[in-house]
Design brief:
The protein has 249 residues and is α/β, with parallel strands linked by helices. The protein has 9 helices and 7 strands; from the N terminus they run βαβαβαβαβααβαααβ. The chain has a 7-stranded parallel sheet, sandwiched between helices. The protein is globular and about 50 Å long. The structure holds NADP nicotinamide-adenine-dinucleotide phosphate (NAP). The site of NADP nicotinamide-adenine-dinucleotide phosphate (NAP) has 29 residues, from α1 and α7.
């Protein structure tokens, strides 16, 4: 098999960084995308290069459609044909009840967590689909267990965005299956990353261990294991699947 090129959005830290590294170990060249923390993304790229694979760092705001176009143009130029996309970049917001949520908060949530992955998938499909002269490919969306359990009193907007990602995964998988593209999602439970600290949820996260059957948080690497399997030829007959990586929750 020839070289295979993968774009991982939000790969400067957390789950995305773990996916980038594990995918490189599995043989993928990787585009390490971030919003603006180029120094952190470059550290991930260095780790990828140490595996012997190629790594390119690109910054782009996924809430900005023009920036997404520029991201994929950089991928074309700097890495070549795309074979895989991991739609990982995403945000939560501070804890709030629905009656406290502002329209600006909702717009930002939909733009980053919904439109962003959908427009990235659009750009990837235009390159990978046999319908458009591509060689086929694979997409993995990073959803959340929040899509199943809801997040009442915390961030229903976030859990709604992830429920929509599940729906997108199921529908898109059927739409592009005949064009040689598999589409799946992982639904991580509560994973030990910076996302909680940046949104003021850290203490609640530590306390939430009680509701996890395995009685511990998950690691970014454990989520990455699921993503990289879904990317692999070993998952060649798997499409439209939602893989829970949530400690039994
Ligand atoms: P994280 O540590 O906060 O990392 C987020 C990544 O996304 C960073 O690389 C960040 O880039 C990038 N990013 C954020 N907003 C962006 C934007 N507007 N445009 C472009 N890039 C943006 O997050 P994580 O915990 O690894 O989560 C990754 C994914 O897993 C998210 O979709 C999240 O919803 C999902 N998830 C996480 C958990 C969990 O418990 N951690 C559970 C379920 C699902 P910069 O570094 O440049 O800011």
């Amino acid at each position: 098999m020839g070289e295979r090129n993968l774009l991982v959005t939000g790969a400067s830290r957390g789950i995305g960084a773990a996916v980038a590294l594990l995918a490189a170990e599995a043989g993928w060249n990787v585009v390490i995308h971030c919003r603006r923390d180029l120094a952190a993304a470059e550290r991930v790229a260095e780790a990828v290069r140490r595996t012997g694979r190629r790594a390119v760092v690109v910054a782009a705001e996924v809430a900005d459609p023009a920036d997404i176009d520029r991201l994929f143009e950089r991928v074309d130029v700097e890495l070549g044909p795309l074979h895989g996309l991991v739609n990982n970049a995403g945000v939560v917001d501070v804890a709030a009840r629905v009656e406290e949520m502002t329209p600006e908060r909702l717009q930002r949530m939909w733009a980053i967590n919904l439109s962003g992955p959908m427009l990235c998938a659009r750009a990837a499909i235009r390159r990978m689909s046999r319908r458009h002269g591509g060689a086929g490919g694979v997409i993995v969306n990073v959803s959340s267990a929040a899509a199943r359990v809801g997040s009442p009193g915390l961030y229903l907007d976030y859990s709604m965005s992830k429920a929509a990602i599940d729906h997108f995964t199921t529908g898109l998988a059927r739409e592009v299956a005949a064009d040689g593209i598999r589409v799946n999602a992982v639904r991580p439970g509560i994973i030990d990353t910076e996302i909680h600290a940046t949104s003021g949820h850290r203490e609640r996260v530590d306390a939430s261990v009680q509701i996890i059957p395995m009685a511990r948080l998950g690691t970014a690497k454990e989520v990455a294991e699921g993503v990289v399997w879904l990317l692999s030829d070993g998952a060649g007959y798997v499409s439209g699947a939602l893989l829970d990586v949530a400690g039994g929750r």
